[in-house]
Structure prediction request, 211 residues.
Amino acid sequence: MQEFFTRLERACIELHQPLPEIKEEGLSLYEAQQELLKYVNKYEAVVNAKKLALENLNKKQIQLCKELDRKIQIDLKYPPLPTQAQFDKLEAEKFEREEKFVNLKHEITEIVDEIKYKPNSDFEREVLSSDDMMLSNQNLKMLEFFAKCMKELKLSTEEEVSHLRTRIEDLWKMLDIELIDRDEFRSHYCTSRYIIGRKRQLIGYFGSVKN
Prediction:
């Protein structure tokens, strides 16, 4: 009997609950022992369930903090069992960072393809080749800077393309190229993508025509 009382007392302490009232009146020693054991099993089952929940929360916290490259803010101990609020906050932050990563990468890859940009750092190559990146604050800042640089490069490239088109038109006028030849050339060679990839060849072409 004393062993059962000790176990029940320990379970109640862990659960921060008072000892339950156990009716022993009119019960034989065996029946009283069984009644006590029933409470012991009930309370210990609750303790074990809470410990399992705590273990799962610890694993979840470690995984989330690892993915976000953050230090674990609290050391979960039993008792008491922590609330779900902190983990909901981490989950929301993870989702927000994932969404930001996807949007920025989409912007970057579109520009990279359009202007035929070749990555020149390990970070840029990782961004363009992987969908599984650590979503740390530092990585997101670098990603934002990469996107900013790509937008600026796209703008300067568009200005250069516009300048080349104007130069082509001026050369046509100077050489008195037929309109039908101009239209044919435009359809094949005056797209932004082609001009970006063939700037030197185009200038060389008009230089040879001029000569």
Q: What stands out?
A: The mean pLDDT is 77. Residues 1-82 form one domain. The two ends are 112 Å apart (CA to CA). Helices lie at 2-15, 29-67, 85-115, 122-129, 137-175, 179-189, 192-197, 199-210.
